[in-house]
Amino acid sequence: MPIYLPIAELTVNLFHLLGLGVVVGTISGLFGVGGGFLLTPFLMIYGVPSPVAVASVTAQVVASSTSGTLAHLARNTIDLKLGALLVAGGSLGAVLGVIIFDVLKSLGQLDVLLAIGYLTLLGSIGTLMLVESTGLSFRRKQAGQTAQPRPRRRFPPWIRALPFPVTFRRSGLVVSAIPVVAVGLIIGVIGAILGIGGGFILVPALVYLLRVPGKFVVGTSLLHLTAVMAVTCTLHALRNQSVDLILAFCLMIGGVFGAQVGAAMGRNLDARQLRLLLAVIVLVVAARFAYGLIVLPDTLFQSNRIDAGMIP
Amino acid sequence: MTRWAAVLAKALLLVAAMTAAPHSRGHAETLSLAISDPVIRLNPNYAGAPIALFGRFDETSPDATYDVSVTVVGPARARVVNQVGRNAVGMVVTTRRVYYDRLPTLAHLITNRPLDRFADDQTARRLSLRPVDLIEDARLGTDPDGEAFDRALLRDLVQRNEYGVDGHGATFISPGFFSARLQLPSSILSGPYLARVVLFRDGEVVDTAEQAFVVQVAGLGSRLTQMARRAPQHYAALVVFVALATGWLGGVIFRR
């Protein structure tokens, strides 16, 4: 069934969009990530102009994260104070990211820089998660244990030495506000540049860097995603009018349904299995970018429509 | 087929009107043009549309061979063609790029028989009849391999159905009457479009004429596009509200 996207200025199949939304929404609900790192490249491959894909995905991420955020709010599994600091940093990062994106665009080679950015981030985080997950699994099998490993709660000395300590009662943490805001800011910048929510970076950052208890990780990550993506979406709509509401809405419908499916599936998997599964998905996407950087395409010429202002 | 039937019905009316109308210009082989749909609306379910152009002229030489070329062009935009290759460390990167300014986003040449049977290369180039001529016109810079970039761009645009050549898309219905039909692709930009018609007699250009038509976004899409451009702050608020409301509603509906 065809549907015309007025901002993207092309006709697509409605069921393809809904299906894509369901798949990505399932991943979102399962892992507490936005799914933008999958959705943005998929839309570009599907023919949606990259500025529209990047901008519209931010709206979809807001919707898919909202249902999850509200569910976690109801279950009391969000550290609101921690979330507020992360959102403050993330919002500033989103503003910086949009400015950096414009600078990169004017320098040329943006596509290659994006591919390298995706590969570096996804590759390193995916490998880290895979090693961690399989390493834990191996050690547990050796020891014949079935209980969860005890989380490491002590921060490294350089983090403990930082000023502006803040007490996060719900998470049972005392840590400087600097690394918290910095994590939010870095993810905000990366998210705006790469057109992703950054949940797949935030979740491990909360677990490994800020030592947030597993119970609060997914909910707090979703709160950050919802708020920062709302800011990023607003910036994209104001700066270049590239948010396609019809495209985003189709993805939202599929995404909201998928998020529920993912959340239900998540209840039957433990945290370690989830990390292993997410690591595999992240590495597959990284491999796709590596392939594009290593293997010459069939045609050596690629054409794109551009703004007249980009002509040097 | 139903769409083409509707176009054909409009054609009959237009042909009747054109037959009744007197010619406005001096010489006998003056072209008169009409189009089946002066306004193409991009509704939410738009998936391409057929369009037909009709032309009339008085044949002054019964023994002469008449040919017609119709070049349909869409709104112009800038485009870049990147050539990729390996850098010093073996990574695939853009090695060269050629820019095109004011390149039509749609260009289709429709003729009653292949163009090279009745027009020489110079004439086609001079009148920018073929999509490749339009690409060459729009190319910027002095890259010595510019033509290779042109060919690559043409291949890409033909693959997207945005550019094309149909050597049998125009038909002489009767002496002095012709029609040219084109299936507009599903991905077209809104804006002004132009059908440029050239009439040939024994390979010589005897008249040229133009027929404009408009492609415009209709319904909800039109309102959203206008809002996004004219009131981006309201549009941004609407998008965020819809996203939050959809997410919230989804949570409510699926809550057990």
Automatic annotation (TrEMBL), chain A:
How does the record classify its membrane topology?
Answer: Multi-pass membrane protein
Protein's cellular compartments: Cell membrane; Membrane
Among InterPro entries, the record links this protein to:
TM_pro_TauE-like, TSUP/Inactive_protease-like
Q: Which domain of life is it from?
A: Bacteria
Which Pfam families does its entry note? Answer: TauE (PF01925)
Residue ranges annotated as transmembrane are: 12-37, 43-62, 82-101, 113-131, 177-210, 216-238, 245-264, 276-296
Keyword annotations of the record: Cell membrane, Membrane, Transmembrane, Transmembrane helix
Q: What is the predominant subcellular site recorded for this chain?
A: membrane
The GO cellular component terms are: plasma membrane
Matching entries from PANTHER family are given as:
MEMBRANE TRANSPORTER PROTEIN MJ0441-RELATED, MEMBRANE TRANSPORTER PROTEIN YTNM-RELATED
Family to which this protein belongs: Belongs to the 4-toluene sulfonate uptake permease (TSUP) (TC 2.A.102) family.
Protein name (Swiss-Prot/TrEMBL): Probable membrane transporter protein
TrEMBL record, chain B:
InterPro entries hit by this protein: CHP02186-rel_TM
Task: Classify the source by domain of life.
Answer: Bacteria
Chain segments annotated as transmembrane: 235-254
Task: Identify the stretch annotated as signal peptide in this record.
Answer: 1-20
UniProt keywords (A-Z) are: Membrane, Signal, Transmembrane, Transmembrane helix
Q: What is this protein called?
A: Transmembrane protein
Q: In which organism is this protein found? A: Marinibacterium profundimaris
